[in-house]
Amino acid sequence: MRLRIAIQKSGRLTDSSLDLLGRCGLKYTRGKDQLMCHGENMPLDVLFVRDDDIPDLVQEDVCDLGLVGLNVLEEKRLAFRARGLAPLFEQVQLLDFGHCRLCIAVPDGFDYRGPRSLDGTRIATTYPAILGRFLDEHGVQATVVVLSGSVEIAPRLGRADLICDLVSTGSTLAANHLREVETVLASQAALIRTPVPIAPEKREWTHRLLLRIDGVEQVKGSKYIMLHAPRSALPAIAKLLPGSEAPTVIPLDGRDDRVAVHAVCRENVFWETLEQLKSVGASSVLVLPVEKMLA
Ligand code: ATP
Ligand code: ZN
After folding, report:
1. Which atom of ligand 1 is nearest to the CA of 50?
2. Quick check: helix, strand or coil at residue 288?
3. What ligand 1 atom has the least distance to the C-alpha of 69?
4. Cα-Cα-Cα-Cα dihedral sign, residues 149, 155, 158, 160
5. What is the pLDDT of residues 8-23, one digit of tens each?
6. What is the pLDDT of residues 132-155, one digit of tens each?
7. 272 C-alpha vs ligand 1 centroid, how far in Å?
8. Residue 27 C-alpha to ligand 2 middle, in angstroms?
9. Which of 216, 272, 222, 217 is nearest to 245 (CA)?
10. Which of the four CATH numbers 3.40.50.2300, 3.30.70.360, 3.40.190.10, 3.20.20.70 does domain 3-98+189-218 have?
11. Can you spell out the DSSP letters for 256-286?
12. Residue-by-residue DSSP string for 87-151
């Protein structure tokens, strides 16, 4: 029995998804236009599909796991509920890629003074359920124009007055003379799993893979710091180390007053922190990237 994970076939999430699986130790060969690829060193197959299909595949237990954006998950949850179905896929954890926001953008020159300015307008989007909830929450009466793509050109084509679309840098909006006015949903990729209890033969590998994914996520941005310091400065140093757990304190041969301190910091360590460490007496400060971590 092999585990099956669904990821986006070709798009913004594909490289980061494959990178995540690679960091978890998966070796695979991917043929061109292949729907599925076979993990060579784990009982895990990767299914390549449109991102919009991932929640359904997991919900229906065709795949055990899936990597997909919160924007797609939230739209599906609302759509399932609207059809009287319960969204059953479970969100396991957020992943540090695919960051974007679903936002409302108006053409240059639109006099926007808050959500009530949307009353009576036509809004183009591929996310009617999430937008509908936003409009309801603000008591706005607007017409939602559902499009399957190229939302940003709808105002110029006269199909809508404004849009509700995904944005990361904002350059597409600017190129289309649109201005962001509201964030409807902040999004990033997430790991989801089937609601069905995983078959006993697959349980061990599911557990291992989930721990590895968590380890990969924790390592991102984590640093290992080593330094020498006066014993008396330990409390001050512990306060300065960003997001660290109890540091390891090691005696230095022949010195009673100074110790070596090793700590894992769960956040990036900036030059300012190193300068502050030095000012409380630290020396020989080394900051190293962390390659793997297992909780
Ligand atoms: P398909 O449906 O064929 O898989 P798509 O056109 O829906 O592809 P992409 O444009 O590749 O998908 O986006 C996939 C996901 O990437 C989005 O659902 C979203 O979670 C995330 N994303 C990150 N930044 C952006 C952005 N600037 N625009 C759109 N999506 C973004
Ligand atoms: Zn899609």
Report:
1. 4
2. strand
3. 20
4. positive
5. 999 999 999 999 999 9
6. 999 999 999 999 999 999 999 999
7. 36
8. 26
9. 222
10. 3.40.190.10
11. EEEEEEEEEESS---HHHHHHHHHTT-EEEE
12. P--EEEEE-SS--EEEEEEEETT----SGGGGTT-EEEES-HHHHHHHHHHTT---EEEE-SS-G
218: tokens are 């924790």
Strand partners, 4: 45
Atom of ligand 1 nearest to the CA of 149: 6
Q: Which architecture characterizes domain 100-186 according to CATH? A: 3-Layer(aba) Sandwich (3.40)
Question: What residue type is assigned to position 137 of the chain?
Answer: E
Distance (Å, whole) CA 39 – CA 27: 6
**Model pTM?**
0.89
pLDDT at 29: 85
Q: Give the model's pLDDT for residue 243.
A: 80
Nearest-CA residue for ligand 1 atom 1 is 50
Tell whether ligand 1 has an atom less than 6 A from the beta carbon of residue 122: no
Q: Which residue's alpha carbon is at the smallest distance from atom 11 of ligand 1?
A: 11
Nearest CA to ligand 1 atom 6: 11
